[in-house]
Amino acid sequence: MKEKIAYPIGGFLLLFLLLIFLTCVGIFIAIDAQDKFMMIKYLFENPIFYIIAIPILIGILLVPLGFVIINPNNGAVLTFFGSYLGTAKNNGLFWINPFVSVKYVSLRARNFDSEIIKVNDKLGNPIMIGVILVWRVKDTYKALFEVDNYENFITIQSESAVRNLAGTYPYDNFGENEAEITLRSGFKEVSQSLEDELGERLEIAGIEIIEARISHLAYSPEIANAMLRRQQATAVVAARHKIVEGAVSMVEMALSELSKKQIVNLDEDKKAAMVSNLMVVLCSDKDASPVVNTGTLHQ
Question: How many domains would you assign to the chain?
Answer without folding.
Answer: 3
